[in-house]
Every structure is written in C-alpha cells, then in structure tokens.
Amino acid sequence: MRLLAAAGDDAKILAGGQSLMPMLNLRLARPDLLIDINRADQRAPSLDGNHLRLPALTRHRVAAEHDLVRQHCPLLADAIRYVGNVRVRNRGTIGGSLAHADPTSEIGCCALAAGALVVARGPDGDRTIPASDLFAGYWSTTLAEAEIITDVLIPVARPRQGWSFHEMVRRTSDFAIVAVAVILNLAERDGVIAAATVALAGVADRVVLADPQPPDGDPDEIAARIAETLDPPDDVHASGAYRRRLARVLTARALREASARAAL
Amino acid sequence: MTPPPMTGRQVTLNVNGRDHEVWIVPSDTLLDVLHDELGMADVRYGCGEGVCGTCTVLLDGEPVNGCLTLAVQAEGGQVTTMRGLMGPGEALHPLQECFLRRGAAQCGFCTPGMVLTALDAVQRLGRPTREEIRYALVGNLCRCTGYTKILDAIEEYADQ
Amino acid sequence: MTTPDLQPLTKPYRIVGTSPAHHDFVDKVKGSLHYAADWQLPGMLHGRVVRSPVPSALITGIDVTAARALPGVFAVLTAADVPGNQIVERASGGLAELEVTMPVLAGDRVRYMGEPVAVVAAATPQIAHEAAELVAVDYTELPGVFDVQSAQSAGAPRVHEVGNTLVSWQIRCGDVDRALAAADVVIEGEYRSQHVEHAYLEPEAGVGWLENGVLTLRVSTQVIEHAAMIAHILGLPQSKVRVIAAYMGGGFGGKEDMTVEPYLALLVWHTRRPVRMIWDRQESLVASTKRHPFIMRYRTGADHDGTITAQQVEILGDAGAYPNLSPRVLFAAAACACGPYRVPNASITSTAVFTNNVPSSAFRGFGAMQIVLGYESQLDELAARLGLSRTELRERNFLAKGDLLPTGERLDTCVEVAQTMRRALEMLGEPPRPSGPGKLVGRGLGCNRHPYGRTIWFRDRASAWLSLQADGTLLIRSGVTDLGAGQAASLCQIAAEVLGAPLDDISIYIGDSALNPPAGGTFATRQLYMSGNAVLHAARELRERMAPVAADLLGAPAEDLEFAGGRVRARADGPSITLAELAAACDKRAISTAHLSTWRAQAGSFDPRTGQGDTFPDYTYGTHAADVEVDTETGQVTVLRYAACHDVGRAINPLRVQGQIQGGAMQGLGYALTEDMAIEDGYVQAALFANYLIPNAQDFPDVLVDIVESGEGKGPLGARGIGEPPIGNVAATIASAIHDAIGVRPDRLPMTPERILALLDERAAATREEHQG
Hints:
The complex is a heterotrimer of chains A (264), B (160) and C (773). Chain B is of the alpha+beta class and 160 residues long. Helix content of chain B is 32%, strand content 16%. Chain C is of the alpha+beta class. In chain C, strands 3-7-1-14-11-12-13 form a seven-stranded mixed sheet, with helices on both faces. In chain C, strands 9-17-16-15-10 form a five-stranded mixed sheet, with helices on both faces. The longest helix of chain C is centred in the C-terminal third of the chain and has 28 residues, at 527-554. Chain C is globular and about 95 Å long.
C-alpha cells in the first residue's frame, strides 16, 4: 500500500497479469513500478452471512469450480466459462478483472447483475463500493489511485431466483461482442417475477445495468425497450447497430431462460 | 520515492526438475528467460498477447502464458516445458507418441503448447469428450492442421 | 474417430502410399527442432525495423542522432546506407507488367502504413525498441487511394508515377458478345473478397552473421534464391551471400517474398556482428504481405438446358503499394476464372491495381483461390434460375480430358471432379434438422480447378543430389525449403521407395543456397511436382548405374533386381547383398554412388496480347460440401458438417495428404467466415492477434476427407499437388450452403453474422413487397 501511495501514477498493480502484461508487451503501458500482489492473499472463497465473499485474488478457474460459487452464484460460475482460455483462467483474478474494467467483461457484467459489492482498501482504510458505482468508462473505475480491491461480496442466490448468461462471440472464447446477465426473483406468493436485474457487456464504454420494466412483462418487449436505450459503439468486430440488435435478442433469451430456471 | 532503476539480479528457476541460476532484469518475462537465456526452443514467442498459446508452460502443474508471466514470478515454483515430459534419452511421452503417429504436427510450432495443454486437460478430466478437449484447446491456435489430427491424438492418449 | 482410414488404390509400392512419421516430424514432436529464432551466436545483436505510421507521405526529414546516441545501439541505418536500395521484381518475367521498383528502406516517400524507413541494431531487444522509437521522421502526408475502383478513376492520387494499373491480363476465346446476346439466360454477379493474413504461428524471424567473409542468413523463408537479390542490395558478389532456410513454422506464401532478409543483411554487414530479428506479431499483422482482395464481376451465358456458352469475367485485385508477386496472382486468377467447366466463349480481364494499402502478394491459392467464389456462385445462380439441381448443372458442364481451356490449351490429364463431387456429398450423409426455432439449415457444395506447378513459361527446374554412403545409408541434398507440410520428408519417402534404403537410414539436407543444388522456392504447390520428380529421377538414375554391379554380384539380370529393406535381391528367396556391400563394390569398380539430377518441367509460352498459350502444367480437381445452420436472430452461421474430396493423383503419404486438406479447408473457413484485416483509409483495424480471427479448436467441426487417386498427375508416380487446392473451395461451399438455408446469396467476404443478418433483412423486405404488390 505504501508503494502504491508513493508511486502514484507510475505504478500498476500486477495480479493475474492477463490484461496488464499484454499492454506491457505491446508497450501500451509503461509503468515505472509493478507491484506484484499475487502472494498477498491466500484466502479461499467463503460464505459471509448473506454474501459470498470472494477474495480479489481468486483465480477465475477457482471461482468457476468452487462449490460455494456454484451453489451461491451459479451465474458467475457459468459466465466464467466464456472468459479467455485455460491459461487465462488459471492466472486471471476476479478482482483484477473488475479493476481492469473492460467494457466486454463477463465478470463485470455478472457483478452488476448480481448486485455485488466491492471492498477496496486505501491508505485511509476500507470502503465498500456497489458494482453499479464501480465502472467509470473505458478501462477505468472509480477506485482512487492508491486503492486496491481486496474482496468481492456477492449476495447469495435466493430461493425462487433464476439466472441466465448469454454471450455472442465471433470466435469461441474471444472477447464478447455482447453479453447479457440476468437475475430475477419470483414473488413469494404467486410466482410472478417481482424483480429483475439485467446487465449488459459490449454495448457501451463500460458494463451497464439496464432497467427491465415491468419485470414481469413480455421478455421481447422488455428486451426491445432496453435495446432502445443503448447506443453501442462501432468497432472492428461489429457495428453499434448490430450490437444493439444482439442486445435485444440476447436479453430476451436470457430473460426466458432465467424465468424457466426460477420456476424450477 | 523514485523507483529504483532496472538492475539485473540473479534468480533461481526450477525448470523441468533442474535448478537454473539466471541473470535477469525484473521486466523479463518467463518466455524471454526460458527461450533466450536457457535456450529452450520448445517455448516460443507467437504473439505477446496471450492468445496463441505457443509460449505455454506449466507453472506448478498449470498451463500459463509464458509471455504474460514475469520470470521473477516463477521463482520458487516449478516450471515444466514439453521437453520436461520426456524420458531419458529423449524417450517420448505417450502423448507425444500419439501426436507423432497421428500426424498431429505439421509445421510443429504450436505442438509444445498443444501437448502441455492437452496433458493438463486429460489429467484434470480423465477421459474428456472430444468437445471438452476442443474447449480446453481454444487458446492454442494452429494454422496448419485444422485441429482434427491433434484431437485424434489426444483422444487416443486419453483412451490409454 | 472422424476421418475414414485411407485405402490406397493399388499397392505396387512399399513406402510410398504409407504414412510413416519420420524426419522433421519427430523433431517437432520432441520440441527439438530449431526454428529461425532458435539460433544464438556470441555477441549477437537484436534488430528492429522502423516503420511509417502513415499510409501516404513524403519524408521531409529523418533524424537518427538521438537513436544512435542511446547506449547499447550499434547501428541505425536509413535509405542512404543501402547500396542497392531498389528492388525490381519482374514477377511475370517482364511479360506484361509495369516496371516499378520497391525500396528496401524508403528514402523520400512512403506508400503504405508500415513501410520500412530505417533499421536499428542494439544489444537487447528492449534497447532496439527504444532506439526505433527515437528515430525521428518528418512526414508530410499526401492524399492516398485505398480501393481499386478509386485508384482506377481519373485524377486519382498516383501511388507510382507510372500509373496505378500494374498489369492487366486478357484471355479471350470464341466470341463472348455474340454468345451472351444469343444465350437463353444470362446471370450477372459481383463478388468481393477481403484482405487476409497468413497468420503462421511462427512470426517472421532470422539470424544473420558473417562467416569467412560470407554474409550468412538463417531465416524462416520459402525461397533461398533471394540470396541473389540480397547480394544486389548490399552490392556484394553473389558468391558472398548464403541463405539457409530453417524449417518454417508455417509459410503459406507469406514468407515467399523477402521478409527479414534485407534488414538483417544490412545490419550484419554494417555492424560486422551477428544480428537476430524477430517481427512482433502486431508488426507482422500490419506490415507483412496479404492476400489480394478481389472484385469479381461475372456475366455467365447458358442455354436453357444448362450448357454454359459464355463467361465474361472482370477481376480487379488490390496489389497494395508495391508489385511483389501481383502479376502472377492475377494471372493465375485469369487462367482459372472459368473453373472446372467447359466454356467455349470466354473473355477474362484480370487487373492488378496499386493502392496505398499494405502490399498484397502470395498466399496459398494465389488468385486461383479467390476466384472460386465467382465461378461457383454463378453456377449456383444458374442452377436456381433454370430449375436444375446444382449437381446436375455441374455434371453437364464439367471439363474432361482432351477438352480445351479458354487459353487454347488441351487438358492432357484426367478430370475426376465429378467423382469428387459425389464422394463429398456422400460423406455428409443425411441433411440435419434445425436445432430450434429461428434456425435454418442448408447444404452447399463447391468445386474447383487449381493449378500445381509454376506457370509454364518460367521453364521451371529443380535439382537433387543423392549419395549412397559406404555404410549403406543415404544422403539427399536439395535446395527445397520446408513449410511444415513434409516437403523434405516426402523426398525421403520417394528415395526410400526407389533405392530400398530404410527411412531411418536416410538423411536429408535442405534449403542452403551454398550447399544444396537449387530446387526453386516452395510455392505454387510445386515441390512435390518438381523436387519430387528430381529425387525420383535421381534415385532411378543412381539405381540404374549401380544395378549392373549388383547384378554381377548376384548373378542375375539387372531387370530382376529388387531394392528393399536395405538390401538388393534378385528373387524373393534368393541371395541378397546389403546396400553397404553394393556401395563398396561400386567403389572398387570406380563407379560413383553419388548422383545429381535436374528435372525440368515442360516448357511453353503465353501471348499476353491474344490471351492464348500455355499457363500451368496441370490441375488438381476437388469438391467440398457442407451443412450449415443459420441463427436468423443473430446471423451466426454454425458449420455442422464439412467434407472435402480431391483427386491427388497418388498419395505419397496419405496421412499428410489428409492433413493438407484439413488444414487448407480450415484456413478457407476462416477466410469465408471470420478473418478480415479490415483496412480503412490505409490503416489496418485488426492489428492485434486477438482481433484477427483465425479458427480455433472449437469453431468448426472436423473436416471429413476422402481422396481419389487417379494416378494421372505429373508429379512423381502420378501425384498431383495438394498444398493449395483445398483452400479454394471453402468460401464458395459455405456461401452455397447459406444460400440454401436462407434463400439469399452472400456475395461478400467474410460472411459475418452482421452481413448475414442484413441479407435476412433484405429477404424479409423483398418478401413483404411481394405480398403487398
């Protein structure tokens, strides 16, 4: 922490390195100081009251295979299958992914959908940031310069809750063109959808939360309405207009699948 | 505090069961050191981005990107390259024999990465299905074979 | 398993036709093969090219002082430091193209983004990188031109002073205008393809050094004959330059022109130190040569019974900023523009146009590949228009041995394309059903005719030297270079077949311009045809020379001798001698057991004015077939099944033949569906390997392979070339399948989900109009 505070702008945290190291290899980032935090924390995922506590240094592969994650946040376990490849998942970390804030990030998308909280430690102590307040734009977060994510707290899956993750890629395991994560909760008594969160990746300069209104409405209509609010950028893989269309299709599919899961 | 200049230092890397003392600068990647310092031709530069898999090595038994791992990060761990799987007198590992028999190498550049990743997949999954093997190999690109004979070789090995 | 076990047609051969794993393949699996970058010499420096960041500009100043002053820098060279800075490539032998030179290092002008401007050598790769960044070049940007149609328009910025049209080939036969006017049906179509990259897993690399005054380069290259060009660049005699071709980690035509060679040579010559250069992947993506994008315009005329009467074809290829091999690529496209079909009236114009894009040059398929989409799409459209099945229409028009090509050449080998079509479709089996709502399935096919061997007017030749050693082992020396497709190993199999030496007793030395008899480069699917024949003939001639000695020792006529298993015998159960004993006996009689043979391909000539004459020695015919599923909501195309069948003449090593077909088809699938350099205004958009989408292990199904062995190829023992042909059928096959699924034909590559969705929208709009109208 001292190193980070002292070096400021010239330092970068090195966790899994799967996003940072390519930038160094390509000379897109040239920090004077790399602070390797890989050995700073050996904790495993755990349950903390109503939350699944994932240490920031939890490797993607560990998160995907851990019983607690599969049980209490199956959305995340499922979505991690789409992250990179075997090597990336062996080293990349949950906290590192969130801090890197790629707008196509599966982890970021799930964090939003699940209402995750990020615990960040700085020179002045710890604070808790809702995922919905974390992402600030292309590869940038609201973390202060000398802050490091230490934990990610995910509300555990409740009974009568459904989830779904859908992603479209141009080539298997690539960066998502568009991804959608949905969590919806059925009402106690009558089984209608009481609340739903929809998060999308690849549709803006950051992962975004959409507002599915009404939560128990027709999935196609909800999806169409959400898509209309989006203005995705063009890039080498897809135009903004196509991404918007994908968002509509994938949101509808995810809502239906989450609904079916909730009913089980 | 200004960061110290990049000075060389000596590290000990355990590669294929043997300790090597090498002189590095902190920014050297594991790929740089294995290939250039230790002359290991079976760990190769392919892209520097972590997407092609030609620099795959096992670090404590897990496939990692040699080009995305700093050499200093491998200190204290065990690095295995494909040649580390072979027996005395260059005896082929059974998986390598399957590769040879099945014509799974054409230009051969992707082969070490493929073999290590395949070995890890079979060790973790026992007898993976062909689809599971495909999934395990998505990060190992091949431009010559169309993947079929590589999958054939791995399935043959997994059956043994 | 997946692929059917190959049964060779007949088995008069012991080694040819089997699939041993030997020679370089053993080293590759062991990880002990040393590629070009796996070579180190004491005091070795590291080289890096400095490249233009802009596509079209004057160089108004270049300041290397800061770069030279950086500690650890040993050389910073610019145009002024290059004795022979202009490369002249007369790719078609001066037959028809403009003469345009290409600098090794740009002096006053850059014409594409990535063009080399300077080169540095430093003690470490990191210092070389920093030095490269310190080279300060002043650019004054000039208007550029980035597509062929703009480049051909009046007033377009000139890429070269002499003009933007590099070459325009014409092939004419019959009377196309009259035939089209008289045709019962005329189909018009325009098809476009994109810039794609070889994406070999081994980036361009090499090490150079001085040895006894000889500039020696050990590089990943398909052509060691560039040694002469390197000598010219350095102003050295040719005897002072040696090029050694390391076994390549893939080439595919991307290492056919020089890559690192001239820069390494300059740095080695200047510093008098060994120098290594490895291109960054991103550097390779941006600046290495690419496949020519084509615009292909067809007008196809036919009778109502489906007989093709006319083909009018216009091909425009984007040559990029410099000529390289463009004239030959556009020529191959012209020669194959009518495909495997009889066309009595044809007019083909094939033009290479300069732009300020990265230069295009050789890439597996070489023009004859891109054009398949043109002629096969036209055939499919014709079938649809006439209500004929796609197979029926093709069978009506397939060429046969003895038919004339539009160039006036008569086909002198059999044409088994119909058989390949039947077999490919058979392999697919029953058509699949859609996997769910909103999904459509379709089946497609694509036939092709692809040349092997160099254009005949090059008077191609290849030499090989064989030596039976005193201990009965065999040495082969050949200038052949090895791309990873068994170029070297196949020569060993052929020699083993003829001389009976066990494969393990044969050593082959390849790709050294100082030590090997020249074999020509590895391209144009020519090595089996050329070097295979050279080794076959050298082995036969050597055997003929030694046979009387063996006959004498065994007391049997020379014609009765069998060379097998390391021995020579007259009868199956009779006495035999070892090859070592034979060698000793020859030596005693002062009969040499070493032999050099030069094999010459048939010669011919072509008249560019009439568009008539000789083109290629022969062709490989094949058909691919595929089942696809289209997701009508996302436009995604899933290939469900894929089958490929080619007539390979004779499979020297069936497993390797399968591998070529599977690998070529996979490259074709990337070309068809996912790969695109996406160059905009001269800037490559897909400049990261993460963004250039070559197929991975999960993208496509196994390519099912069947082969026909007609035995009438001009390669050794009746073989035909198989390196390039399998990449050509794919895009047409997939387009055909998508059309079958959704009723609209993609005419632009790659067939991305977004483009497919746009086609679906078009179809929906057209259907709505129909219902309203």
